[in-house]
Amino acid sequence: MSKRIETGNTACALAVLAAGIDYMAAYPITPQTTLSEKIANFAATGEFTGKYVLVESEHSAMSAVAAASAVGARTFTATSSQGLLHMHEILHYASGGRLPVVMANINRAVLAPWCLYADHQDSISQRDTGWLQLFCSNHQEIYDSVFLAYKVAEKVDIPVMISYDGFLLSHSLLPFETVDDSVIKQYLPDRDPAWRLHPDIGGNFSNVAMAAEYSAYRHRLADDTLKSLQIFRDSIKEYENLTGRKQPDLIEASGTENANVYLLSMGSMASEMELVATELTKQGINASALKLRLYRPFPSDELVNILPDGSTLIVLDRNIAYGHPGGVLYMEARSALYESDKKIRVLGGSVGLGGVDLTVSVLLNEVNRLLEVAKA
Amino acid sequence: MNTNEKKEILQPVSMPVEGVAGFTSAWRSQWPKLDSEKCNGCLLCWIFCPETLISREDRSIDLRYCKGCAVCARECPVNAIEMIREGEE
Amino acid sequence: MLELRIHGRGGTGVVTLADLLSKAALAAGKEAQALPFFGVERRGAVIRACFRISDTPILQRSMSYQPDIIALMHENMLPHARNEGFTEGEDGAVIIVNGKVPVEAEGTQWLVDAEQIARDHGLTFGWDAYINVPMAGAIAKVIGIPLESVESAVNVVFKGKNAASNLEAARDAYNTTTKVKGGA
Amino acid sequence: MSEKMKENILESSVNPMVGLPHAEISKHKEHDGTEVAALSSKLAEMPEYEMVHKGTGACAGCPSPMGLRIVGKVLGPNSVVVMTPSCTVASTGMMPKSCFKIPVLNCAFASAAATATGITGAYDALIEKGAISGPKPTVFTWIGDGGTYDIGFQGLSAAAERNDDFIFFCYNNEAYGNTGMQRSGATPRHAITTTTPGGKTENKKNLPILMLEHQCAYVATASVSYPQDLFRKVAKAKDIKGFRYIEVHSPCGPGWKIPWSETIDMGKRAVKTGAWALWEAENGNLTINAPTLQIAQGKVKPASLEEYIELQGRFNLVTRSPDKDKIIADMKDGIEKDLKRLLMRL
Description:
CATH superfamily of the largest domain in chain A: Thiamin diphosphate (ThDP)-binding fold, Pyr/PP domains
Low-confidence stretches of chain A: none
Distance between the termini of chain B: 53 Å
Shape of chain B: elongated
Radius of gyration of chain B: 18 Å
Radius of gyration of chain A: 20 Å
CATH architecture of one domain in chain B: 2-Layer Sandwich
Largest interface: B-D, 43 and 51 residues
CATH topology of the largest domain in chain A: Rossmann fold
Order of helices and strands of chain A: EHEHEHEHEHEHEEHEHEEHEEHEHEH
Number of strands of chain B: 3
Number of strands of chain A: 15
Helix content of chain B: 10-25%
Oligomer: heterotetramer
Number of helices of chain B: 2
Number of helices of chain A: 12
Helix content of chain A: 40-55%
Mean pLDDT of chain B: 92
Shape of chain A: globular
Distance between the termini of chain A: 52 Å
Largest sheet of chain A: 7 strands, mixed
Strand order of the largest sheet of chain A: 3-2-4-5-7-6-13
Mean pLDDT of chain A: 97
Strand order of the largest sheet of chain B: 2-3
Structural class of chain B: alpha+beta
């Protein structure tokens, strides 16, 4: 294990290198570009030993890695924003085909108008593609998430998307600890698929299904997605045991225990929110920040368990759930708490769109505004 | 090939079988009748049959699947194949 | 925690400067964060980068709006720095300038002729000088990162022949950066 | 649009066969004795292996399984195929059944080439790593003209430029057959399709030439009606590493509005009129095959284009047009020019 300080994209590239990827295809897009460039450099120096194909579009990138995954390869691609939207069709294909592709999405705003900066609209627009989605708030999480993603993806045969904020994480430098290759090998042995596209095995992948077969596959995917929650929990524990390093929970709470006010968010904002909770506590409001690490499937049980009866939950989203007030996390949190006996006031807002800088004071203003609404 | 037998196959995969569309003889209104006497063994019927129904050895036709397209009759240079109305001999 | 904001021009190595400072801070056993801000403009355009150094993990993910230190890669970056906002005066931000004479600003100021140092060590590209390495040396000195840590960072970032001249440049800058205004 | 044209369109869309000289079809046989004799010796030597199971869901007389059978004889069981939405996929059989003995990867419409890129690259990586044992399966695609000329062209062009190691087969039936015969970039001018009820007003693209200009390892045009030529070209392609493109002209019963029995005959007419040219090119070096070369050089008189047009219901608006002679003369002129341009590439 060694401590390094690198950009988020380099942290991701180093993890990709250690994860033993067989096949990668990617197309450049800001702010992902430096990630695929970094891996191209690793390929040029011979450190990356897999096949790396420079395709002509994100649609082709996802098509190629999905196909390579069907052959049994451990595959990786990365994109951002429009690139992710361009992949959308094939995202459904990869999950429906139960192909354990892992992808990094460097969160960035989507058209129109053009905007290059951090915004979660790109990944949340893929919410119902059947992909599992991890979010990161620092470089350590980016690095560790790559291994976790492969671990879970290959166990449940569902693709995983790792999202982290463009520029704020992708291009910033932060320290993180790498893990020795031997430990990673132990955590992530070579992929051993039950089926692969090969003449020795045979099979026609994804030909036309009638309603009954189709719905059975889709229900199975939905069930397995929910079941993956436990696989995530177990896989995080296994990683902790192997590395001896504490991992954040699916929803990581920080700040005051038994707080009255909880601040739920994901991505880089979730880190700054820890400072907001501290600031609120200083002002006499017992606050705790909740960092969501896994967005799909949504860890509802964790959320319900953390929140004490009578508390207030403020949810801040870097996205908009059009047609519903606030963003997707707000929607998700309200849905999770509906069945709970606990009486919890939930308020939500969308902030930081298009990379609007979320300083402690900006976040504090929004939280205070929502707390006023809660009082009213 | 390190195939893990224990793991369940979750991918939507079909396996090859004969007659995916059933016995497609139901699709036809005419059937091809080969006159072995006339046949010169050129094998054009064998190569052009879309359903792989004609034997290269003896040009016998697997009528269970024949859709009656008549390409064999059409392409036979010596008119050794005749299309017969379904139900007639 | 100490917050630094660097004002420079695109294509002059500000990103590498941030990389060097971060690695030097890590070598010195500190927590650090470098956060470059990119516009859509290209080479030559005015850019800024934030750098934080701390004894505890850094949780901020936003830019610095009240930095403790302002680093001007060129004297003419002062209006840009003011535009972005910083507290000017004896109790305000410390200013580090690449130049021969101090800039017209209140408060503590450090001066380094990074341009000349770069040229002395052949760190040029066409008409331009690569001032990022000498600036890293200068900033390191002001914020208290030991020279050995800067040297180890230079050795990580640059390889071969480049490393030697850059090391020299970093040392020169570290040793010649002087406080020209204010402070004790 | 004249009233007469409207009538013709209505008539042809109700019954595509109306007005066709059916009775005469069986009188025209495009065989000659020497050709058959040459064919038969080689057919007897072709491998026994059949890639397609009996009893597919394809239309009667469909050229796609005919072509695949020949491709299968060359490539054998150690091969995998990529398919996009097409007639072939629709006739594969429903889950959990498949009519193909080799593995198939069905992918999204625009993804054919990139999918094959992924497969071939993954085999390279996994074989090198020792995760799977060789020999490497032959990777090929079997894609209609829609997935090749139109929605799939970006990926196709890119895979050719990267020289990815697979064979891209386009089976060209000159329309979107699977969705019920809409125009494609491969539909010839004047052809009626469900989206060009007044006849297509644009020329088809010359995609094989575009592929030739990619300077890839091997590019060839072929026809289901010339099984040996197709066999030989696939065999040549099989032994070449890198990107290979083979376009197989595939006359379509419902699309061309011809009786099922006429598939092969129409394919031969297409070649003998010069409307479909047979050629191949290794690394951009062109060879024009018989009988296209002889037609292009004027050594062999082309077959009747009038008949070729008249026999196809999709050209009913031409057949019935008062300007028929002029239209057909223009078509002939177009074919001659195309062949001349092809000769100039030699």
